[in-house]
Each structure stands twice: as C-alpha cells, then as structure tokens.
Amino acid sequence: MKDVLDELAAVHRELGKGTVPAGEAYAVVLRRRYDAEIDDVWEAITSAERLSRWFLPVSGDLRLGGTYQLEGNAGGEILVCEPPRLLKVSWLFGPDAPPGSSEVEVRLTPGPAGDTEFELIHSAVVEEVFFPTYGPGATGVGWDLGLLGLAMYLRGEHVEKPSDFESSPEAREFSTRSAAAWGEAHLAAGGDPEQVATSVRNTTKFYVPDPA
Fold it and tell me: Which domains does the chain have, with CATH numbers?
C-alpha cells in the first residue's frame, strides 16, 4: 500500500450544505484523481462483481429506478445513472431510515492523460445532536477508506475485506489521520475550534477503538 500520508493527501475534502428530498442537509465532498480510464472507474463502481472486490457485496436490481443493498451497510434506490459520468443513489441504513434523508452522488470526468477525476458528494439530514458530536468525519472517514480501497484495486493491489483491513495497523493509522483531516475541513468551513476538536476525538474513538 502507498504511504498513508500520500493517500490522505490525494483527496481534497470539503464540508458544505446540500439538499435532499427531506430538506436541508450537511454535505461531505471528496475529490481525487485515479490513474485509470473513466470507463474502468465507472465499471469498478457500478459492476456488482467488481464492487465486491474493493468495497462490499451488493445485491438488487442494479439499473436506473432499481434498488440496491450493500451487505451489512446502506441500501436505496438508483436515482440517476448516466454512464460513464454520473451516478446518484439514495443511501439509507435500515428499514427505519427516513426516506429521502440521505443521498450519494458520484461524478467522473476524464483527465488529459487517460486518468479520471472522481468526485463524491454525500448529503444527509442528521439528528441535531449527531453532527456536533462527530462532525463530518462520521461519514468522511468511511468514504476515505472506501476511496482508498478503490485506489488499491485500480492499481491491481490486493484489497482485503473491509472488516479485516479496518482492524489492521495501517488502517488504524489511516483512519486516525483521516479524522484529523476532516477536522481541518470542518475548521475551513467555519466550525467552532472547540467543537471540532471534540468531534475529531469522538470520530477517532469510533473508527479506531481501543484494542483492549
């Protein structure tokens, strides 16, 4: 695996506001470049067989208007599918998740050297107490781990199952530094320094629990 710091530096992170059917939402934005053709990246994020190699097994009716379910994770409806540039899905955890409360959009743009610019926007309405407690790192660290897995996969490296990788020393270091990077993005968006510091600590404890 490339150096943790290199992987972290490859991603640009932003915190902003968005809208979903349920109303105003927080939005985390991640951008990075992949040394792969746009069609290859598109297939890696939309093919059920390839998704299972670097992310999670997925089932469902994987077409526009269909539904999907990631094993042990989110599910929802495929809202927009415009190969190979735009994918938008609802992103809901469990049957009790409020409809229209969370959406993920991925935009791909071909680069000048056969590479691909990748942008992911996750907009979600969150409980009033949740954001001050965890900040953008609550979802941002998870997406950093996902984009790392995609980078490794596109380079032809072995990608462990997320549950195995996330407990490794490399992943613990990556998640710790990712939480801090999302804290910096939160500060850049005008976050209160004391609240940001608290949310970074809480997010780090969540993703990097004490092994004992």
Answer: 4-207 (3.30.530.20)
